[in-house]
Amino acid sequence: MSTQKCQVEMLNLRSCKRDVVRDGRCIFHLEDKAEAEAAEFEKSFKQELERLERSESVIDLIGFVFPRRILLQRTFTKDVYFDQATFKQDAIFTFAKFLGYACFREARFSSVTSFIGAEFSGYAEFEVADFLGHADFDGAKFSGGAGFGGARFSGRTLFSSTEFSGHAQFDGAKFLGRADFEAAQFSGDAEFTEAEFSETDFGRSTFSRSAIFVGCSFGKLANFGSASFDGPAQFVKGGKDQADPVLLLHRVTFKMPKATQFCGYPLSKISFAATDITDILLVPANGDQDRILDEILIERPEVSKRDEPLDIAKRSVGGLVSTYSLIAEYKLLRKCLESNRMFTEAADIFVREMKLSRKRLTWRDSGEIVAHQLYSWVSRYGESINRPVLLSLVTIVASAMILKHVCSCGVSPNLWTYLAAVSSVFFQIKSFSNFPFLSNLSPIPELLLRLTSLTLLGNFYIALKRRLERK
Ligand SMILES: [Zn+2]
């Protein structure tokens, strides 16, 4: 055995100083171990771990290279450091207990990683760790805070029913496979700033304090169905999403709506079915806000096997949505947008709301249907000022031309005279009987003109009033 010592840097910049076996490294730090070396590692590691637990103040395993599948389902009674360790095969920490600080900073997990049911009493640090295979933290308990900032999860990742009692930090984490946080409990602040997901499920999860998803990219779909946000919640769209993600926020509870915001997501991709969104700050993305997601889903046929985001959304939300619930949802959305002073968006939503109300009418309400249709044509349900003005001009000019054509018996005055006569009737100032050249006219044209005028002026008044009220 050589007397050369391993110089790999460990805790507090102290070098390893164990005997070198090859390439300037000890058996623990040696990369790419041969079969015999791997066997030697397994024997030595057991003894070394026992020695560290017995006689050292901390368990320092910084930079260790684990060549084979390793089972560490044990209780670590002291602070443990796995920084920059490499697990070449499965790393199984199922039901392990970490009574002190547990550090896996920059560790590399090459295959399956299991922390199922593991308990972390102190801070658990996984910053910039690299999980290349399936990573499972199901039912794990983080009592002293958890740091996963900048970590990368390449395979399927599970944090289902995981309990985060302290601060849960996932800033800049990347989830390249599907990430499940179903029924996870975040008792402290949960931060996902600039995290990147491809598809994620936070269904039934609870956020007792703040939930920050600022600049977060959700990939194709994020499900927050039946989640509960007890503190402030911030959702601000990140720039890395290729297309807009589908966000399912059905049956969600927002206990602090005034401190809750959704910015940058188009309404055609968010479902708020059976969720009270009163008072939340909603700033939807510009673009096609003609229909909200739930209306699109109502019309979409259900396909059981396809995994397109809209098919998944249909299966999750479809049962909650009806024409009646849609009208209620549009009303809530409109009030929400109006209280954020986003009147143009609110107007579009109002038009959709009225169109849906019209669909609900049956043939018995034919009078209502006609009124609805007129209201829609004349002023886009009181949202357009231009339309009634333009229609009034057209009515006046057309009526004047028709009258001139019809009454061209004897000496006929010019078009301007007709225009003046029609305008004075249109604005309900005079009657056709006041004009000698029209005195023989039957009362029907006047009646029709007056009715049209009342409809147009009424619509103009409604649209103008609505516009002024919002200023
Ligand atoms: Zn070493």
Topology (elements, then pairings):
Elements: H1 35-55, E1 59-60, E2 65-66, E3 70-71, E4 75-76, E5 80-81, E6 86-87, E7 91-92, E8 97-98, E9 102-103, E10 108-109, E11 113-114, E12 119-120, E13 124-125, E14 130-131, E15 135-136, E16 141-142, E17 146-147, E18 152-153, E19 157-158, E20 163-164, E21 168-169, E22 174-175, E23 178-180, E24 185-186, E25 190-191, E26 199-201, E27 206-207, E28 211-216, E29 221-223, E30 228-229, E31 233-237, E32 246-248, E33 253-254, E34 260-263, E35 270-271, E36 281-283, H2 293-299, H3 309-317, H4 323-339, H5 343-360, H6 366-379, H7 386-406, H8 415-426, H9 443-469
Parallel strand pairs: 1-5, 2-6, 3-7, 4-8, 5-9, 6-10, 7-11, 8-12, 9-13, 10-14, 11-15, 12-16, 13-17, 14-18, 15-19, 16-20, 17-21, 18-22, 19-23, 20-24, 21-25, 23-26, 24-27, 25-28, 26-29, 27-30, 28-31, 29-32, 30-33, 31-34, 32-35, 34-36
